[in-house]
Amino acid sequence: MAKKKSTPKSTPKTGRKTAGSQAKKSAKKPAKKLPRRVARVVGKKKPPTRRKRAAAETAQTPSPGNDALANTGTPPIPSELPILPLRGTVVFPGTITPISIGRASSRQLLDESLATSKFIGLFTQREETEEEPGIDDLYEMGTAAMVLKLVRQPDENLSIIVHGLKRVRALKATKTNPYLRAQVEEPSERPGSSKTFDAAIAQLREQARQLIELSPNAPEQALTVLLNIDDPGNLADFLAANIDLSVEQKQDILELTDVAKRVRAIHHHVSSRLQLAQLQAKIQEDVEIAIGDNQRKFFLREQIKAMQKELGEDTGDGEQLITRLREQLEQAAPPEAVMEEAQRELTRLEAIPPASPEHSVISSYIELIAELPWNTASEENLDLIEARAILDRDHFDLDKVKRRLIEYLAVRKLNPDSRGPILCLVGPPGVGKTSLGQSIADAMGRKFARLSLGGVRDEAEIRGHRRTYVGAMPGRIIQAIRRAGTNNPVLMLDEIDKLGADFRGDPASALLELLDPRQNNAFVDRYLDVPFDLSAVLFIATANYMGHVPPALHDRLEVIEIPGYTDHDKAAIARKYLIPRQLKEHGLRRSQCRWAAPAIHTVIEHYTREAGVRELDRQIAAVCRNVASEVASRPRRKGSRARTANGKPDSRSVTPDLVREALGPEKYVREIDDRTKPPGVATGLAYTPVGGEVLYVEAAAFPGKGGFKLTGQIGDVMKESAAAALSLFRGRAEALGYDPDKLAETDIHIHVPAGAIPKDGPSAGTSMFTAIASLLLDKPVRGRLAMTGEITLRGKVLPVGGIKEKTLAAERAGVRTVLLPKLNERDLEEIDPRVRKRLKFRFVDTIDQILDHALGVKTR
C-alpha cells in the first residue's frame, strides 16, 4: 500500500540511462543528490532532511538485475498479475519509483509473489480512504512493473523499488483474498506521425527545457535525461511523472493510449507551469531592479508587495483594499439603493488616507454590507411528514406547538410568498421552549440563531448605534443575520418578557417594527442605515409570563401557551430523554444503571415540585453520579463485563431506596390532608410565571374590636379580595347562622404561608371567603378540595385565567376535587385528558354553591 504522505517521487527510467548509471553519477557528486524522482521541475520544495536523503539514496539503489534488464529490453508481461493498490500516486512506464508498503495484504502479496515472479500491477485507488479496495475501487488503467529491490526498514515497514514497464488494463479479478490478482491486457498505442505532431514534440521539448532552467531546485541530470529521450510517448510519460499534477490529472494522462493526445495533454500542463515560472522570474527581476543589494529588509518587503500586486491580494495598501471591497460588494449583489450607498462610501474611502481613524470606520461599514446575506437563503424543507418526525424526535408531547408549525409549513408549501406570523411560546421554565427553536429550524431546514433578551435595557442593542459614535456596532438582529449567513433563518428572541427600560430607551418598543410582518421588509438598523428585508425570517419569541409584555408588542405576537408537564409526562421524558443523556454524560452503560419505574416516580413526587423538568434532570444526574462512583471504585476482572473481581454484578438497579440514599430525605410530601383538617384553612390555586401553585389560606380569630389583618407578602389585588371576602361574609352572616354582633368583638387574621414569596392576583377571593366562613362557622373544608375564582360583593363568582396550570398544580398536590367558576367550563377542553380523569370538577356561579360543596353549608 502506498501511503499518501510518505510516497516518494519516481526516478525516470529511459533506454539510454539506466538507474545504475544515475546512481554512480550521483555518488560522484554528493553535493547534488538526486531527489526521490529524477526531476520535479515545478515549484519550490523544502529541501529534504539528512535522514530523508539517506533513505532516498538507499531506496534508489538499483538491484543487480537492473542493468541486465536495460540490456535485454522490456520483458513480456504475464497475462495475470498480482495487483498492488496505490494511494495518492500514479506510476508511469519508464520510471523507477520507491514505494512504502503499509497494508498487511500488500506485504503478503510481496512475500508470496516475489518468490516466483518479479512482476506486479500498480493501480491507483479511486478513493484514498478505502482500506481494502476491490477491483472496482481501482482505476481501470495501471502500470505493469518489475520489483527491483525490497528494503526492510528497522521499524518493520517495507519499501520496494519498482521499474514501470508498460501500461496494462485490468480485465477481471481472479483472486480477491488475501490480496488481489487480476487478468490484464496491454492496450495498443497509436503513435503520431504528422508534421503537426513533430512540431508539437519539438515545442514540448523546448518548453520543458525552459521550465527546467527556470526551476531553481531542478537537478542538472533532469535536462540531460530530457534531451536523451527520443520516443514521444516516453517523453510525455517522463514529464507527467515529474511535474506537479494531481492524481486525477496523472491518471487521465496514463489512460491516454493515443500518443498524440497524450503529448497534447502534457503540453497543456507544461505550458501553464512555464507561464507561472516565467511570472515568478519576472517578479524577481522587477524586485531586483527596484532596490539595491545592500537593502535586504527592504528587498523582502518589496518582494512580498510585488507578489501580492500580481495576485491581487494586497490588503495593506489602500488601493488594493478598495479593489477588494468593490469585488466583495459585487459578489454580495445588494439591492440597488444599498449598492449606491456603498459606492458613495467607497468614493469617500479613496479620498481618506489609511492612517485616518475614519478610514477603518468606513472600511468596516462596507465589509458589513458585503458580508450580509442579501440574496443567500436556505432551501426550505417542506416535507410535512419529515418535519413532524423531527419535532417528535426532539420533544415529547407539545402537540399544539407542533401542529401549529406543521400548519405554517403547509401554508409555505402552498404559497411560498406568504408572510409568516410571529410566534411566541409562553410557559413555565423547563418545558422546552428554547430547545424547541432549534428543532423547528432542523425541521424546516433553516439556520438557527438565538438572541437572549433577558436584562437588555438599551434600545440600541436592537437597532444598533450610529456610526458617529466611537465603537459603534450594528444591533443584535443584524449581527445574528450575518452570523447565520442566510436571510431566512429561524431567529429566536428568548425571554422577551425580561426586557427592561431606562433612560437609554425601551427595547420592547424597538421590537415593534421588527416583529410586524408588514413592516420588517424594510428594517433599518442605525449602524447599517440602509433597509434590510427581514420578512423571510421566522421569528419565535419565548416568555414565562405575558403580563410583563407591553400591549403593543403583545398585539404583534401569536401566543402559543405551553403548559407544565404532568407526572406521567415527566416519567416519559425521563425514560426517553433525560436518563439516556445522563448515562452518556456519566460514562455509564444502560446495564450498569437500570432505572426502575418506581424510582423515577419517587424522584418526581418527592424530590421535584416544578412545571418543567430541569430539577428532575438535576436529580437524575445526582443519582447517576452516585452509581458512577460505585461502579468506578469496583475492581474489574479482565475479560469480563458482567461481573467484578469479587463476583458481584457490575451493574446497579436504581430503586426507590437507592434514590433516597443518593438524594437524602424526601423534600416534598403531600401535606394537603394535614393542612386542611382544622377549620379556617382553605386550599387555593394560583398561577405564577413558573407554573401553577397551591396556596393554603389560613384564617384565625381572637377577641378584639373587629380588626382585620393580612400577612404573607400579599399584593394589593389579594388584599382587596380579602376585604371583599370579609364584607361578603358580614353581609351573609345571619343567613349562615352566625351572629353578626360577634364580628364587632372579633379580630380576624388571614395569613398565606410561604411569606418570603410575593403573592398577588385576582383569583384568591373564593379561597379567602371559604377560609373565613370555615373559621367562623367552625366547619373544616372537605378533604382534598381546592378552588379558584374571584368574588363580587353580590356573591357572584367570576372567571379567572391559568386554568391549565392551576389544575396541574392541584393534581401534583394530591387534590381530588376542584371548584371552578361556571364561565371557566369552556377551558376544560384544554386541560390534559389524564388530569381530567384524576380530578373532579365542580362549576359554581355563586358563593352559596361554594359553601355547599366545600363546607356542606346551605344558605337560609
TrEMBL record:
Region (Disordered): 1-81, 632-660
GO CC entries: cytoplasm
GO BP term, pick one: protein quality control for misfolded or incompletely synthesized proteins
InterPro entries found in the cross-reference section: AAA+_ATPase, ATPase_AAA_core, Lon_bac, Lon_bac/euk-typ, Lon_lid, Lon_proteolytic, Lon_Prtase, Lon_prtase_N
Keyword set, alphabetical order: ATP-binding, Cytoplasm, Hydrolase, Nucleotide-binding, Protease, Serine protease, Stress response
Composition skew (Polar residues), residue ranges: 60-74
Binding site for ATP: 427-434
Listed Pfam families: AAA, Lon_C, Lon_lid, LON_substr_bdg
Boundaries of every Lon proteolytic domain copy: 676-857
EC number of the protein: 3.4.21.53
Family that this chain belongs to: Belongs to the peptidase S16 family.
Subunit structure, interactors included: Homohexamer. Organized in a ring with a central cavity.
HAMAP family: lon_bact (MF_01973)
Record protein name field: Lon protease
Organism: Mucisphaera calidilacus
Gene label: lon2_2
